[in-house]
Amino acid sequence: MMLYKVEKSNYSFFENKTGISGDFASILWNGEMKHAASGTVNIMRFGPSVPSIYLHMKNLIVAQEIKDIFSKKLTGFTAVNANKKKIINADWQNLKQDFFNKYFSLSDVISKGKHSPEAANKMPDLWLIKPNYPLNFKKISNDFWEFNYQDESDFYYGSGDRRGIFISGKAKNLITDLGDWLVCSKI
Predict the structure, then answer these.
(1) pLDDT-based confidence at 100, cuts 50/70/90?
(2) Ranges assigned E (strand) in the chain
(3) Which of these, 85, 113, 129, 182, could form a disulfide with 42 (CB 3.0-4.6 Å)?
(4) Residue 49 belongs to what domain range?
């Protein structure tokens, strides 16, 4: 079975459009996410516009429409409804680099923003896609990894010597058909 590591969100076209890059582009595109004690996750980001699929750290977040497609066509994951804890109403896709000049640190962009219930209501529901099965890795050399799995699936979480989210060729093809949202590498 062909497997891929989900490396990062692909926001290169956003960087080209706005001139905003690096961590600044990441905070606008991916926002912030924190695990909550209740087993859910809290999302803090600009909205109501949101990428349909994005990766925050090693957490795959999808909009309702994508979750519905995944549920029909892919296996091996649990979808956890995300709490829209702080949604800051802004046309973030059209901001310019000088927007950040008024902030002392990058995290201030979200922490100092005001939650907008209206923007949160307009935003689609967001879901954390949580792989159900481990992909057990053992590092053989700098460029070579040995891995195994017990259950065939479309989603895996890395275990052992390598962490992250890993997807099947079927999942990668579906995600690619839905748009150029993620950067993946063959393992």
Answers:
(1) confident
(2) 3-9, 32-35, 41-47, 53-56, 59-63, 77-89, 126-131, 133-141, 144-148, 155-160, 165-168, 182-186
(3) 85
(4) 3-186
